Amino acid sequence: MRRQIKLCLLLVLSFTAIQAQQIKIVDKPISYDSVRVRLSLQYLKERHGMIQNTPTITPKIIVLHWTAAKTFSSTFNAFYPAKLPNGDRADIAKVSALNTSSQFLIDRDGTIYRLMPENYFARHVIGLNYCAIGVENVGSADFPLTDAQLKANESLVRYLCKKYQIEYLIGHYEYSKFKNTPLWKETNPNYLTGKNDPGVDFMQQIRNNLKDLKLKGVANH
């Protein structure tokens, strides 16, 4: 009897532990129509030198961003169209009409939204899109990311690392340090933009919280 009780207790504790590890993700897809598919395949070919039949990626890197916008809705609406609006983002529109986006968007309260299937191609980081999952966070340098967002990012990274063979976790501001490494795929060596998101302090905090995952940063490639 005692053995049975002990076994039942272990099962309950195991189930509770599994529940505690679960993550809540809200699916709120942006448009991934035939136009976005075509432009994504074109981007893969022309910018990354990769010819594919489907706009999918093999994730190796997670890139954390901030939106530079104050609301979820403004960012979602900006990402939704497949093409960059006319006259918008002239610095990146000159190389592709494909709109920017990311696989995930995290609101100020820590709610995690999935904007597309996790292994679909998104334009969010020069040179690494083909292998990078992007996580956008509503905020900016003047509108700092919240503790709830920090916890949500940590949970999301852990979730993604269980599903994919993730090797790197970087902030968007660190992306150019991959240039001249085997992971870098950008056909134009002069195509770079300056970034500072999601902030050095935020990256230091999340790396400290995720030390057990032993993810590489840019210094370890």
Lateral arrangement of strands in the main beta sheet: 1-4-3-5-2-6
Report the biggest beta sheet as strand number plus sense, adding barrel if it closes.
6 strands, mixed
Please indicate the percent range of residues in DSSP E strands (runs of 2 or more): 5-15%
What gross morphology would you assign?
Answer: globular
The number of helical elements comes to 6
Q: Can you tell me the CATH class? A: Alpha Beta
Note the gap between the termini.
Answer: 55 Å
Order of helices and strands: HEHEHHEEEHEH
What is the typical, i.e. mean, pLDDT? 91
- Relevant CATH superfamily: Peptidoglycan recognition protein-like
CATH topological fold name: Lysozyme-like
Q: What is the CATH architecture term?
A: 3-Layer(aba) Sandwich
Rg from C-alpha positions? Answer: 19 Å
- Number-wise, the strands total 6
Q: Which structural category do the helix and sheet elements fall into?
A: alpha/beta
Helix amount: 25-40%
Low-pLDDT residue intervals, each spanning 5 or more residues: 4-20
Number of domains: 1
